[in-house]
What we know:
By secondary structure, the chain is α/β, with parallel strands linked by helices. It has a single domain, classed as Response regulator (Rossmann fold), CATH 3.40.50.2300. It is built from six helices and five strands, in the order βαβαβαβαβαα. A five-stranded parallel beta sheet has the order 2-1-3-4-5, sandwiched between helices.
Amino acid sequence: xxxxxxxxxxxxxxxxxxxxxxxxxxxxxxxxxxxxxxxxxxxxxxxxxxxxxxxxxxxxxxxxxxxxxxxxxxxxxxxxxxxxxxxxxxxxxxxxxxxxxxxxxxxxxxxxxxxxxxxx
Length: 120
C-alpha cells in the first residue's frame, strides 16, 4: 500500500522539493489549497502524516492544527510543522496548537526523505 501524506505548503520551493522527493520514493502527496481541501483529502485518503509550512500565507495553520487535534476523527494523524529558525515564538505556538513535531526548515529539508517515508 502506498504511503499517503498531505502537505499544506504554498511556498513553491518547498512544494517542489516535497513533490520531487515523494515521487522518487513512491509516496503519494496531496497539496490542498484551502482548509476544506484538507478535510476532503483526509476523508478520501486517510493520510499517515500532515506536513505544514508554519509560514503559510493562505491558511491559518495554527487554527487548522487546533481543529484537527480537537476532532476525534483526525486527532491521531501526526502533524509536522516546519518554520524559519529565527521565529522561535512560532515554534512554541505550533506546539501549543497541537503539532506533534516542529522543526526548522533546514532540518526539514535535510531529513525530507526520511520524514516522507515515516522513518522519523
